[in-house]
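B., you asked whether I could sanity-check this one before it goes into the benchmark set. Here's the sequence:
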Amino acid sequence: MKIAFVNPHEEPYVNIGLAYVISAVEKEHSVKLLDMAFHTRDYASYVLESLKRFQPDVIGFSVTSFSFHHALRIAAVIRKAFPRIPLVYGGVHPTLLPEETLQNPLVDAVCIGEGEDTFQEYLQKLEASREPAGVAGIWYKDKNNAIVKNPLRPFRQDLDSLAFPNWDHWEIERYLQANESFAGGLRHLASRGCPYSCSFCSNPALRRAVPGTFYRTRSPENVIAEIKHNRDKYAGRGFRNVSFGDATFGLDAGETEKLCSLYIREGLHREFPWDCQTRVELVTEAWAEQVSRAGCCMVTLGVESGDEHIRREIYRKDFSQEQIHSATGSLKKYGIAYCMSIIVGCPYDSAGSIRNTLRFLQKEKPLKAHITFYQHLPYTEISNRLHYHQTEGEGVVFKAWNTPRAGTMYLGRWRLKSFMLRFFVRRIAMLFYHGFRLRGPAFLWDTVKYLFAIGQSRTVALNNYCVLMGLEQYTLYSYALAHNRARHKKEATA
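And here's what the prediction gave me:
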């Protein structure tokens, strides 16, 4: 069979979950990827021309709650031109809201949970000209348009047996070039899932939605084998660093130590510096020393708020300001740059708590602060505390009403814009502070080169925030990589 996959995300950020599914499906079927990252403006003509040439039997979408509506716009274009092709949706959004997703006329089936095994079995049933009755993890509409609910498929426990993601289906050179200004390098996973229960995050809901153990790890040997495999295939095409996309990297101390030892033994620490994201309480001086020797150049800490009450009582991140300062101190000691994830504007935020976050960032001076505006996700703890309205038509949208602190939610339109402007200005100030600290006057030349490069681009739609984010990665992240490579080269020759 011919299977077309659609990646509806509009930024050049590789969808590693979809990449795993494609690698599993291509063993038995012909595969074509339609990636919207570089086709945000011409997506309709791009999709139609690609499908007319490929003539697929099934089309699969990988969606989150943020990309679901854009996926439906693409699906509407496809349904008009190819009304008989089944449209199947997988990802976090249909896993958490399978019935609501299926109620949309542009959805024929949903894949609940991880898709490597489920989607293959679904295709086998279709190839035998039968409905996918009994395929665990698939819910679908029958000939009478009634929803058929098959049993759920537990999370796969043996991750080492999965095929490595095949990035040849992606415009990998463009990704690796764009990643200099966005994500950096190729994403790799040492684990799947997360055992924590942050109140704003979908992971606890996913843990409840699908049976089986949610948090699983790959063997360090298997992770190293994938990095070496990608080195052989993509080092000549722009692959220069590893980005671990684990929700919480380094949770198992023994596995982390083994992975770092293997990374050093294979000489990868001199070839491929890496970054990760983890929890504050996991970062000790010993942990920082260990990952630094193995080539870690940057760690993102999920701080979320500089206000202790919001962070601990609302977001359920039970660590103190002192623990954060201790973690950043350990990272500084071993030459590891650190970034922080920040969320503002949750229903319980206030002007005072946001000011505390601004003061906190000024004090800690992270290399970069990933500042995002709070958005409700299905079945998170914060969402469940509040009352919601469900829209009809294109999908499910959550809106909160009657919050416990009425009037502080979103702080009012004018006040919110004022705070976001202050965050934006503070972020620019931090960019120039670290840029001059790490690179000196050459930072200004790097800035000009980046702005000229994106000015020549006509494929990616960028707003002011995306330009700032890209400039941070193009300068600060590349400086961290260069510093790491120079340090290990010096140690190797000493």
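One thing to flag: The two ends are 57 Å apart (CA to CA). Otherwise nothing jumped out at me.
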